Amino acid sequence: MKTRCKWLDLTKEEYIKYHDKDWGVQEHNDRKLFAKLILDGAQAGLSWYTILRKRDNYRKAFDNWDYKKIAKYDSNKELELLKNEGIVRNKLKIKSAIKNAQTFIKIREEFGSFDNYLWGFVNYKQIINKFKSVDEIPSKTELSDKISKDLKKRGMNFVGSTIIYAFMQAVGMVNDHQVDCFRYKEVQ
Hints:
Blueprint: H1 13-21, H2 30-43, H3 48-61, H4 67-70, H5 75-82, H6 91-111, H7 114-120, E1 127-128, H8 142-154, H9 161-170, E2 174-175, H10 183-186
Parallel strand pairs: 1-2
Helix pairs in contact: 2-3, 2-6, 2-9, 6-7, 8-9
């Protein structure tokens, strides 16, 4: 049997699949980075498992994460999303996704890609932590504070430091798999 991170709920197959295939894998595709950023923001106040189960619904509702389309959503599209039972129907989070898409495009214009902007914070190299216990894993760091502050200054919402640290873990900017987890070396 494979050893996995201790935070993982082994009773939920979708969660295991996410841990084993997605979490901590270094991501450099702008559309996928945008999707993960919006999904992590949607999680605010909820469990990640709730969002994980709605991921496909989000992808469909938000035009396959086409941030150029999302940036142009109008009030009619907002109402349509508010009625969509497959996603979290929170007006602030929906408005935030639209605003964040607009800011995302501006960041891409300035840096050539969101990937360049984001990974520049870590000099384009994954931070490899060596946590043995789930209790050692932080919920935020000085670096997540810095990225959060910069994103907010640029106009993004639902990008607090805790959300950004979870995002950094998800996209592999930091390797927070526990050292005894079978994925620890695989994602490096």
